[in-house]
């Protein structure tokens, strides 16, 4: 935990970047009746009934020290999906990095084993050699700044009903482009001293 807090306070380093990742989902809902458009003194109105149309998974990778993020919308959240995202992170997002310090939770697919399930051993080893996994403690996933980004994404972009994956992808892409254009960062105020008080139960007794 202290290792994660220390990473957040380091200066930006393109050779050893700190990247946070997380996953979330969005349920697709179709309207069953036409919306009533806005009128003077009246907001847009829609019916309470809707039709379920499946779900989509979202991966987010967020580098808080640079104010950069990437979000991909996928059909599933399997070990293969995660492994393909990691390969994209290493080869496309950070080809210049020597070591990507990746902050994430303890989901069972977030391990090197997932890479070996998808890629040949040599390729899996190559990807792992570029990564340093920094797991958040149990019940402490909120220490992952990617959760903050997902919270903003949910409130600013995904609060409305979205009928299908194509529309969700379009809206999320526009949101990400805007956030990256203004290089929106996180003002992280939680300190190691705060952690020792608030999370005392996670520290070993000496």
Largest sheet, in brief, is:
5 strands, mixed
CATH topology: Nucleotidyltransferase, domain 5
Overall pLDDT: 87
> CATH H-level name... which superfamily?
Ribonuclease H-like superfamily/Ribonuclease H
Strand order, sheet with most strands: 3-2-1-4-5
The residue fraction in helices comes out at 25-40%
Tally of separate helices: 7
Provide the CATH top-level class. Alpha Beta
Order of helices and strands: HEEEHEHHEHHH
Measured between the Cα atoms of the first and last residue, the distance is 17 Å
Structural class: alpha/beta
Any idea how many domains? 1
Q: How many DSSP-defined strands? A: 5
Shape: globular
Report the portion of residues in β strands.
15-25%
Which architecture per CATH? 2-Layer Sandwich
Rg, Å, rounded: 19 Å
Please give a handful of descriptors for the protein shown:
206 residues; alpha/beta; Nucleotidyltransferase, domain 5; 5-stranded mixed beta sheet; globular
Blueprint (SSEs and pairs):
Layout: H1 2-8, E1 18-31, E2 50-63, E3 68-74, H2 79-93, E4 100-104, H3 112-118, H4 121-128, E5 131-135, H5 145-156, H6 165-181, H7 192-198
Parallel strand pairs: 1-4, 4-5
Antiparallel strand pairs: 1-2, 2-3
Quick summary of this structure?
This protein has 206 residues and is α/β, with parallel strands linked by helices. It is 35% helix and 22% strand.
How would you characterize this protein structure?
This protein is an alpha/beta fold and 206 residues long. It has one domain: 2-Layer Sandwich (Nucleotidyltransferase, domain 5). Helix content is 35%, strand content 22%. The chain is built from seven helices and five strands, in the order αβββαβααβααα. The chain has helices at 2-8, 79-93, 112-118, 121-128, 145-156, 165-181, 192-198; strands at residues 18-31, 50-63, 68-74, 100-104, 131-135. Strand 2 (50-63) and strand 3 (68-74) form a beta hairpin. Helix 3 (112-118) runs antiparallel to helix 4. The radius of gyration is 19 Å and the shape is globular. The model has no long low-confidence stretch (mean pLDDT 87).
């Amino acid at each position: 935990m202290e290792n994660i807090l220390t990473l957040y306070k380091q200066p930006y380093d393109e050779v050893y970047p700190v990247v946070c990742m997380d996953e979330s989902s969005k349920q697709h809902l179709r309207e069953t009746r036409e919306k009533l458009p806005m009128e003077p003194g009246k907001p847009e109105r829609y019916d309470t009934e809707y039709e379920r149309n499946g779900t989509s998974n979202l991966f987010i990778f967020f580098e808080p020290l640079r104010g950069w993020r990437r979000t991909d919308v996928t059909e599933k959240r399997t070990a293969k999906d995660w492994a393909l995202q990691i390969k994209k992170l290493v080869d496309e997002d950070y080809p210049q990095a020597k070591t990507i310090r990746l902050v994430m939770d303890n989901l069972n697919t977030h391990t090197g084993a997932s890479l070996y399930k998808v890629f040949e051993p040599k390729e899996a080893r190559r990807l792992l050699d570029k990564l340093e996994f920094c797991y958040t403690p149990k019940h402490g996933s909120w220490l992952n700044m990617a959760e903050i980004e997902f919270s903003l994404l949910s409130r600013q972009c995904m609060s409305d009903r979205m009928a299908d994956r194509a529309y969700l992808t379009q809206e999320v892409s526009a949101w990400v482009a805007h956030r990256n254009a203004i290089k929106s960062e996180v003002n992280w105020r939680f300190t190691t001293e705060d952690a020792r008080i608030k999370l005392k139960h996670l520290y070993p007794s000496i």
